[in-house]
Amino acid sequence: MTVTYTFDVFSSLDGFGSVTAGWSGYWGKQGPELLDHRLACYSEEQRMVFGATTFRSFVDMLAGAADDADVRDPWVRRMCDLPATVVSSTLAEPVDWRDATVERGDAVEVVRRLKEESKVPLRSHGSLAMNRALMAAGLVDRVQVTIFPVITGQTGTSPLFKGAADFDLELLGSHTLDGRTQELVYRPTLHT
């Protein structure tokens, strides 16, 4: 029996995971329902899984952020308290994360082993390239996309599924948060 792996990601309506300039965190659309829901998603015991690029970005954002900054919202603080596995061939331990270990090797093999050995669910926030590869290998059980009500056609970067395989998606759940932000949870299956 293997544990559930959730690929959790934020997106603009047009499918970008980040922007170059002109927007604040959450594209300026966070609200109390969103923040409470995010904290609930991270309240259960689970293990985070990051690729090196996303992990470095989180560490850099948190290191330079004031205590009241968006990047220190309660759900982010909770995420930082969870045990984490960082898949990287370039990072060396110790890393600047309370309970993180660095795993060398292919992400598909690392996550396949984690799914078999872990006693708690696995979750990854971001890490787009790694999660596209994990989806193609059939290791992602849920794709949780939080869609913010913005179009970032001029400033959007990091297209979520650029270069991904084709997938059929079974809708497992949806939430409208603060009357404007949509969370969609899908089960992905490679399209044949």
Helix content: 25-40%
Query: Low-confidence parts lasting 5 or more residues at pLDDT below 50?
Result: none
Spatial strand order of the main sheet: 5-4-3-6-1-7-10-9
- Determine the mean pLDDT: 94
> Structural class of the secondary elements?
alpha/beta
* Largest sheet data: 8 strands, mixed
Form type? globular
User: Cα distance, first to last residue?
Assistant: 25 Å
H and E string: EEHEHHEEHEHEEEE
According to DSSP, the number of beta strands is 10
The radius of gyration over CA amounts to 16 Å
Q: How much strand content do the residues show?
A: 25-35%
How many helical stretches? 5
Describe this structure in words.
It is built from 5 helices and 10 strands, in the order E-E-H-E-H-H-E-E-H-E-H-E-E-E-E. With 192 residues, it is an alpha/beta fold. An 8-stranded mixed sheet has the order 5-4-3-6-1-7-10-9. Helix 1 runs parallel beside helix 3. The mean pLDDT is 94.
